């Protein structure tokens, strides 16, 4: 059975290689990503690729943080866009997105004009929180635990869309990088205030590509486009309005 599966997989790869030589690049790319990148980075990359290579298809997985380790250990994704809190043996780190974890809230929130905030200061106000695990890297999770801050979770959800709308409605603040909120911040609907705790000062999201599959034409095309989108969103974050001194 194992030999049969491997043979059929190799046959499919060979057919894709032959098609690529003829100029017809096709194949499915499985992408696992944190929700904030599914809002902006991944859709823009897919749109750009679809215009040039309509026969490339995508299977996009919004994986819960608790599932990331299992996904990577089982080598299911061709490409993974997740926080860099560990290296994964079967994957190469193709790009990094440098960003900062902060409190995101409406512009008229009492804390919105701060230059930075502690977790304890944030805990004095209602928050919207992710269900189950924090959508953070391991180091950030530890920082939240060490702070001892007790949060009043007005809304708990596993949906980034729900949390975004509740923050825009002024129902609470949330803890995220600005990656999935660039449009709202640029429009002046939300603000991102960095957190003061040293362990939360910077976060890195990685573009991981499966080593054994990275040379496949359709996967390398997607990885290259996502690398460009990483650079674009990093520049957008740098251009976001800054808090007054």
Characterise this structure.
The protein has 245 residues and is α/β, with parallel strands linked by helices. It contains nine helices and ten strands. A five-stranded mixed sheet has the order 2-1-3-10-4, sandwiched between helices. Helix 6 (138-147) links the parallel strand 6 (126-130) and strand 7. Helix 3 (41-52) packs across helix 9. It is elongated. The termini are far apart.
Chain-wise SSE layout:
Blueprint: H1 2-21, E1 27-33, H2 35-39, H3 41-52, E2 56-62, H4 65-73, E3 79-83, E4 91-99, E5 102-106, H5 119-122, E6 126-130, H6 138-147, E7 152-157, H7 160-168, E8 174-176, H8 182-186, E9 190-194, E10 203-210, H9 217-238
Helix pairs in contact: 3-9
Q: Which characteristics define this entry?
A:
5-stranded mixed β-sheet, elongated, 245 residues, 39% helix, 3-stranded antiparallel β-sheet, alpha/beta
Report low-confidence residues grouped into runs of 5 or more: none
Rounded Rg: 20 Å
What is the overall shape? elongated
Which sheet architecture does the biggest sheet show? Answer: 5 strands, mixed
> Into which percent range does the helicity of residues fall?
25-40%
How is the largest sheet built, in terms of strand order?
2-1-3-10-4
Backbone structural class: alpha/beta
Number of strands: 10
% residues in beta strands: 15-25%
What is the typical, i.e. mean, pLDDT?
A: 85
């Amino acid at each position: 059975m194992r030999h049969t599966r491997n043979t059929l997989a190799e046959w499919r790869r060979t057919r894709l290689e032959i098609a690529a030589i003829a100029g017809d690049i096709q194949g499915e790319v499985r992408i696992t990503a944190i929700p904030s990148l599914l809002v902006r980075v991944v859709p823009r990359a897919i749109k750009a690729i679809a215009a040039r290579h309509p026969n490339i298809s995508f299977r996009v997985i919004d994986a819960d943080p608790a599932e990331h380790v299992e996904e990577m250990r089982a080598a299911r994704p061709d490409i993974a866009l997740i926080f860099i809190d560990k290296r994964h043996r079967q994957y190469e780190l193709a790009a990094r997105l440098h960003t900062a974890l902060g409190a995101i809230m409406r512009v008229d929130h009492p804390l919105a004009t701060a230059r930075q905030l502690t977790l304890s200061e944030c805990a004095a106000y209602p928050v919207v929180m992710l269900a189950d695990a924090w959508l953070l890297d391991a180091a950030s999770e530890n920082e939240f635990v060490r702070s001892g801050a007790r949060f009043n979770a007005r809304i708990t959800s596993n949906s980034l869309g729900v949390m975004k709308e509740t923050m825009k409605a002024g129902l609470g603040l949330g803890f995220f990088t600005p990656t999935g909120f660039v449009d709202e911040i640029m429009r002046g609907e939300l603000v991102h205030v960095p957190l003061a705790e040293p362990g939360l000062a910077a976060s890195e999201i990685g573009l991981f590509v499966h080593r054994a599959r990275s040379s496949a034409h359709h996967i390398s095309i997607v990885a290259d486009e996502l690398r460009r989108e990483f650079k674009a969103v990093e520049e957008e974050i740098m251009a976001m309005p800054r808090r007054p001194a």
